[in-house]
Amino acid sequence: MKIKKVNEILNNTKEYIKNPGYSNFNDIALDLYDLHRLHNKNYKKYSIGKLDDWHNIPLMPSYEFSKRKIQLNNFNGFDPTNEVEFISKGEKPKHHVLRDTEFLRSAITSNFQIGAIGLNQSNKIIFLDNKKPHTLVSYINEYLSSINDFRGLYEYVDPNNKTSVEEFITSQSLEQYAPLLIIGTPNQFYQFKLTVDSLDSNPILQTPFGYTMIIQFGDYLEEPRMNVTYYELNDWLSHFFNTSSMNRIVQVYYKTELSSQLFSWGERLTSYVPHTISVRVLDPDTGKELPPGVEGNLAFIDIANVWSCPFIISDDLGIMYDVSQQVQITRRSNEIIKTGVNPK
Questions:
Q1: What is the pLDDT of residues 35-72, one digit of tens each?
Q2: pTM for the full predicted model
Q3: Are 238 and 249 spatial neighbours (Cβ–Cβ below 8 Å)?
Q4: What distance in Å separates the CA atoms of residue 41 and residue 22, rounded to the nearest whole number?
Q5: What is the mean pLDDT of residues 26-35?
């Protein structure tokens, strides 16, 4: 593919992420498919030739990410933007190379404007962690801080450290004029609760000028030592931060292999699907799309995932609902899909 065509595809994708009215999902997805079937050596084996309907694009199993870096080949005369690499932890680490920070940032900006209701340039943003880690969540938080924290800071609080938590509570009690956005995993919020309980701290009061939004990335991994359920934890967070509504607690579904995220609010079981990603539920054996209400493997076409692979079938299971592209993520499959899927 000539570099002029490559640039055209990249520019059209970028504009669509910013403004879905710029083009249509079918054209963007098919252009990216052509780009990857020709120039992504790890995806080529799943290619089935030229297509005219995005529903038929072959899907690469997420298993591939545990084996090697998945990325487009370098183009002669084309210099991508800065490379950012995230490696998820676990028995089989997964590599996700983001050379498309402009696409990722555009997707974050567009999706979080809807997913995080009330997010604006007057927020005070806090990340729950004990350091500045090199993860996708920390990258998203750092970028949100750069554009939405009025202080221009990247601030984190160690949920395990009494001094760190106490200093945060004291400062927040004195700075009630700014809306607070606090980000972390559910388990980090659980650890934060334990530390607050050990300090015997009072709830943080909010003035009419401030409110708190809690954004949780990922699942609540309950362990035997934990004495609260996920919903009990959120009730406690709502009380401690004096949130006006459970809708101020946002759950974010994310995967290291993806550049887009799904959002749910409060106690909703279903997640909102933004325009940068398509989610379907497929039968992994037949590749056929399952009807609403039937559990199957989640399949993604993430057009913000330009330099990695936009076309993925995961080992996460879910159920689609026939209303406003709502999906319920149910559980992780015990079996890893090792073959590609050609939707029919």
A1: 999 999 889 989 999 999 999 999 998 888 877 778 88
A2: 0.83
A3: yes
A4: 30
A5: 95
CA distances from 50 to 1, 24, 104, 271, 312 (A): 14, 18, 27, 32, 18
Q: Where are the alpha helices (DSSP H) in the chain?
A: 3-18, 25-39, 101-115, 136-148, 162-174, 186-199, 230-240
Q: What SS3 class is residue 217? A: strand
* 270 has a pLDDT exceeding 90: no
10 Å CB burial of residue 32 (0-12, 13-18, 19+) is buried
Q: Where in the chain is the domain with CATH 3.40.50?
A: 104-265
Query: Hey, which CATH number is domain 104-265, 3.40.50, 1.10.4100, 3.90.198, 3.30.300?
Result: 3.40.50
Q: Please identify which residue in the block is written with the tokens 């319920």.
A: 328
Residues 144, 145, 149, 151, Cα dihedral to 10° = -160
For residue 131, give both structure tokens.
């350091």
Q: How many Å apart are CA 328 and CA 319, to the nearest integer?
A: 5
And the tokens for 15? 């504009």
φ, ψ of residue 297 to 5 degrees: the values are -75, 140
The alpha-carbon radius of gyration of the chain (Å, integer) is 21
User: Which residues, at least 6 apart from 153, have a Cβ–Cβ distance to it below 8 Å?
Assistant: 125, 145
| Beta carbons within 8 Å of 313's beta carbon, 6+ residues apart | 59, 60, 61, 62, 282, 284, 297, 298, 299, 300, 337, 340, 341
